[in-house]
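Quick review question:
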């Protein structure tokens, strides 16, 4: 084990920084520890392991990122800062006690500050000229006509954007389902190799367990690789995937090793003004999300697709080796790999088929024309300085709907209201660990347990007690259980009805009427 520990400290990839270390570019974990810092970190961990839990030294490498550093599948490994507040996706596991209309995190308001200031300035200018120089009011008929057109356009934009959002969520639900099926098939249904000599049996069993764990790690790797592909992050240097695919011969790994300058560019932090501009939704400050892909100096391949090839080859070996003895198991394995491929193609379709640009431009132009003309039309009714806040309030409502549709149009990005892909990947990783945490259940062990109360709630007797009785007694008890369940439900309904009935002056419940019976 000493050799293993030494190899883990020196040869393993550098662990991500601990909380509080300097941050990196938007959407990624902290900067990798330096060699000296990593050595000190490993020394400290070794001391803690020896003092607190000596047994863990036998089962874990000292640099394991899953045990001794922040969760690699989480994008937020640092303390709360401005990035955590204005960028996303939002952590849906957190709960806010603020009233919904007062919550800022997740609101579209930060990206509306600049447009609303511009609208306020425009409304102030028009109102000032109207009040002090010359009349600028126009008929409010135009307000009604344009309002209908704007409402129609915003409704179309919002419904289309939410449809894409919901479709993206359905694909990730399909991914989680296929991951469960494949993980259970690998761990439970695939058998150990047969015809192994006695002296090689222990070695064969270890190999079987490690093969299954490797295949289940590839399922997690597919989900994480898909997340990065949907965010135009084509390399393998990210903390949540580097340890999962470092042993695979892929184009992305070759590009990461041969084009390190472009691969590391994703970890660079933006300047202050550019970051503020992105938070405020200023288009001139927003970076091209495909920059890393466009500037690649080597072929990037398709990492999720390549991972599926490795998974398919493992299923082939299981089938040819007779380790999936039932044909339906083989069919299930190939069908679920096809389901993962369907998720890959479907999510890319959602990502690469936005609303036609002509619609987006026309809806944006119509909306802004309506807002620009709004002060002129409100002056005909209000005819005073109240036109300014009224215009801003109307602009907030209209632009809010427009901006929400634009934000959720791509559900796989890093806006606050986008899908929490990190959470889905962490869920898949945790559930693969849950499946692999126990050996294949043997039905005799859990069925014949004294704690198996076969006829609960009719009886608290366990399996051994019922095995002492005849078959006729057991079947009679099953029939009696149905009758008892029906009577119990009837009593509950009668008690609930009695509670709902009004009481008489003497405190007794009045009898039920014919309708209640």
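Suggested answer, residue by residue:
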């Amino acid at each position: 084990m000493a050799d293993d520990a030494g190899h883990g400290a020196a040869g393993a990839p550098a662990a991500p920084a601990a909380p509080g270390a300097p941050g990196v570019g938007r959407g990624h974990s902290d900067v990798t520890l330096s060699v000296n810092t990593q050595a000190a970190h490993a020394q400290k961990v070794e001391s803690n392991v020896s003092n607190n839990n000596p047994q863990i030294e036998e089962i874990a490498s000292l640099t394991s990122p899953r045990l001794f550093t922040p969760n690699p599948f989480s994008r937020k490994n640092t303390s709360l800062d401005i990035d955590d507040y204005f960028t996303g996706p939002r952590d849906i596991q957190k709960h806010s006690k603020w009233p919904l209309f007062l919550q800022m995190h997740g609101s579209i308001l930060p990206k509306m500050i600049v447009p609303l200031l511009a609208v306020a300035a425009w409304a102030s200018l028009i109102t000032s000229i109207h009040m002090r120089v010359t009349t600028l009011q126009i008929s409010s008929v135009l307000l009604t006509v344009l309002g209908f057109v704007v409402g129609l356009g915003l409704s179309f934009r919002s419904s289309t954007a939410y449809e894409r959002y919901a479709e993206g969520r359905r694909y990730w639900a399909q991914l989680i389902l296929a991951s469960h099926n494949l993980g259970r098939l690998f761990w439970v249904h695939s058998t150990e190799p047969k015809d192994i000599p006695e002296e090689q049996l222990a070695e064969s069993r270890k190999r079987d367990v490690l093969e299954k764990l490797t295949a289940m790690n590839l399922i997690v790797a597919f989900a994480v690789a898909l997340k990065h592909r949907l965010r135009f992050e084509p390399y393998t240097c990210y903390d949540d995937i580097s340890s999962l695919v470092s042993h695979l011969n892929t184009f992305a790994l070759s590009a990461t090793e041969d084009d390190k300058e472009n691969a590391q560019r994703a970890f660079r932090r933006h300047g202050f003004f550019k970051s503020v501009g992105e938070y405020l939704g200023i288009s001139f400050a927003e970076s091209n999300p495909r920059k890393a892909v466009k500037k690649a100096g080597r072929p990037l391949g398709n990492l999720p697709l390549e991972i599926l090839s490795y998974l398919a080859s493992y299923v082939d070996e299981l089938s040819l080796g007779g380790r999936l003895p039932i044909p339906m198991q083989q069919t299930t394995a190939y069908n679920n790999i096809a389901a993962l491929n369907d998720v890959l193609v479907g999510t890319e379709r959602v990502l690469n088929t936005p609303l036609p640009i002509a619609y987006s431009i026309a809806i944006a132009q119509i909306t802004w024309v309506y807002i620009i003309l709004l002060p002129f039309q409100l002056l005909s009714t209000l005819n005073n300085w109240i036109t300014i806040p009224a215009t801003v309030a109307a602009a907030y409502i209209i632009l809010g709907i427009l901006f929400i549709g634009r934000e959720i149009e791509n559900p796989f990005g890093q806006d606050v209201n986008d899908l929490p892909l990190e959470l889905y990947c962490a869920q898949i990783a945790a559930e693969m660990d849950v499946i692999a945490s126990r050996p294949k259940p043997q039905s005799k062990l859990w069925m014949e347990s004294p704690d198996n109360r076969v006829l609960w709630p009719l009886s608290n007797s366990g399996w051994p007690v019922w095995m002492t009785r005849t078959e006729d007694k057991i079947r009679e008890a099953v029939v009696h259980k149905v009758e008892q369940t029906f009577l119990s439900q009837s009593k509950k309904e009668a008690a609930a009805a009695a509670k709902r009935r009004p009481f008489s002056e003497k405190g007794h419940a009045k009898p039920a009427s014919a309708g209640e019976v």
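Why it works: The radius of gyration is 31 Å. The chain has four domains: 1-107, 108-137+357-404, 169-353+420-440, 449-500.
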